[in-house]
From TrEMBL, chain A:
Pfam families: SUFBD_core
Biological process, per Gene Ontology: iron-sulfur cluster assembly
Superkingdom of the source species: Bacteria
Domain SUF system FeS cluster assembly SufBD core: 175-396
Lineage, opening ranks: Bacteria, Pseudomonadati, Pseudomonadota, Alphaproteobacteria, Rhodobacterales
Protein name: Fe-S cluster assembly protein SufD
Organism: Pseudothioclava arenosa
Transmembrane parts of this sequence: none
TrEMBL record, chain B:
Protein name: Fe-S cluster assembly ATPase SufC
Superkingdom in the source lineage: Bacteria
Nucleotide-binding listed as a keyword: yes
Gene expressing this chain: sufC
Ranges where the ABC transporter domain occurs: 2-248
Family note: Belongs to the ABC transporter superfamily. Ycf16 family.
InterPro entries: AAA+_ATPase, ABC_transporter-like_ATP-bd, ABC_transporter-like_CS, FeS-cluster_ATPase_SufC, P-loop_NTPase
GO MF entry, a single one: ATP binding
Keyword Nucleotide-binding: yes
Amino acid sequence: MGAAVQKSTLEARLEGLSTTGFAPAARKDALARLVAMGLPGRRDEYWRWTNPADFIAATPVPAQAFDDSDEAPVFEATDRVKLVFVDGVFDADASDDLALAGVEITRLAEAPDLNWASGLYGTLEVAGQTPVARPLAALNTAAATDGLLIRATAKAEKPINLIYIHRSEVSDPILHHVIRLEEGAELTILENGPAGARFNKVMEVDVAKGARFHHVRVQGRDHERRAATAIFARVAEEALFKSFTLTVNGVLTRNECVIDMVGDDAVAHVAGAALGDGASDAFLHDDTVFVTHGAERGESRQVFKKVLKHGAVGTFQGKILVKPGAQKTDGYQISQSLLLDDDSQFLAKPELEIYADDVKCSHGSTTGAIDETALFYLRSRGVPMEEARGLLVLSFLADAIDEIEDEGLRDDIVGRLEAWLNRHRD
Amino acid sequence: MLEIKNLHVKLEEEDKVILKGVNLTVETGKVHAIMGPNGSGKSTLSYVLSGRDGYEVTDGSALLEGEELLEMEPEERAAAGLFLAFQYPVEIPGVGNMTFLRTALNAQRKARGQDELSAGEFLKVVREKAKTLKIDADMLKRPVNVGFSGGEKKRNEILQMAMLEPKMCILDETDSGLDVDAMRLVADGVNALRDAGRSFLVITHYQRLLDHIKPDVVHIMADGRIIQTGGPELALEVEQNGYADILKAHGLTEAV
């Protein structure tokens, strides 16, 4: 072998990233954990179906910003506080004031001591590393450059919209948000935008007793998106956590969601609707979910639907873990795909692990095509083929979309789905 | 209105011939009934006319006001004025009944070169028509046929018919699964649509629906053909004596 010492993949990935700044102890710890667990590889059980190569490469695959100006921006009809990041850098000029009644919002990069979040940054991420290692999240905690600390102490006046704009072809943002809802508080977070050529994002959400957290996210229509995101949530007694994600297009998207239900009577719903058309670019969408019931009478729902065509690939890895003593748990999980042709593929791994004896848990996974009888029924009423197929796709996605409580937001999402279907007619 | 000539149909996937030369003419403004034993090809006829996949027409034609139906897509047949009330209306979760009705109506209007109805106009018409069929606001909002009782599904079919105002309506065993009250409600809905410019083809096993929807002409279908045609009295005869005598007279035996 030659004299040159080859850098390890991890060293190459970390090159140029700063692991100092705010939360030095948490970052140092995260870096040590990352070194110990290593970057993900194809041999890892939870990366079997999704090749992590583009996430662990030293530099991102260059990606051009996508021009979606032919469509009204998502959430535009909703009165909200807009907070804008451009290629991962907070843009104060483009953002609204950080002032919102009932909520404290601080930029991570401007809070070296992290204020109220000092004991929280990285904490939920660490908890979420057991039993499944999540190296990209540890990398995020170690090397995030910015993010927001959001603390709701009451019912927020309006939703907060995090908008991630992508301009640079080589941007590689790592953002980390810490969100805490104090007892009885209520907050809605909206997210949209590609953020960069490659995006690594972690959101830690701590929902205290009786608080209600809603999250609606839209990913797309950028074809070249490579995004690895993770939500780590802790849901206390009588608290509610609800998250919905719409994903359209995107070369590679991995959305992880790790929810720990620590208090009695907690409710956690996580849902996703993904639409992929592999005709213009590759499409791979991966939902990896882990819900832990650690207390009594918890209710959890996972509802994931994927519509795939022209070689698009969808994967779902979802688990419900019911710990000893988590009696009267009601856990539900469904993952379904609608394959619009013979070239697409859906891979699903539903898992249940139950250590309490008085629980109700169910899971299901299906892969199917458009129902020909329903299609004929619609056409016999005069609805043209493509429009009828569109209606049946919406019908298929309905259960996931219904997880969005707010009617205005739901209509917004449906409108975008319809627009996507119109653009992707065969 | 509808002119079926020598229609021969087999299943696409197997060598099974179902229709063996159907000849049938339904005049404008008339109500024709087709009765017949199980397996005689009645439902196949309705599916072939409306364009369902899975059948192969090997001979013959079906003209709607002089236009060949068999060459059109299902949605084109609908736009041309054909309507099939399904024996088993399909449930479509996640699509509101109203959305479905409006999409269908506007698609047909568009295909005919008419302006689409505005949301307000549509709402006014649908509410009015729903009321006469005792379809409440809740049923209109719910997903298409999901959780509907048998009677509600059939009433919903008639509501679609009332909204779409077709020229040629085919009712495929609309009475199946209905109790007497539900059947009367459905029949009243159909009768309200009887009109000098609209024709009906009522497919049924039993005479009882024809007590409520009085036909002008009754056909008996067996073994893939119309074997006898007569007035309303033919239905009564079947009701009293069954199909055995008629089948026997045509050299056929009753399918078991």
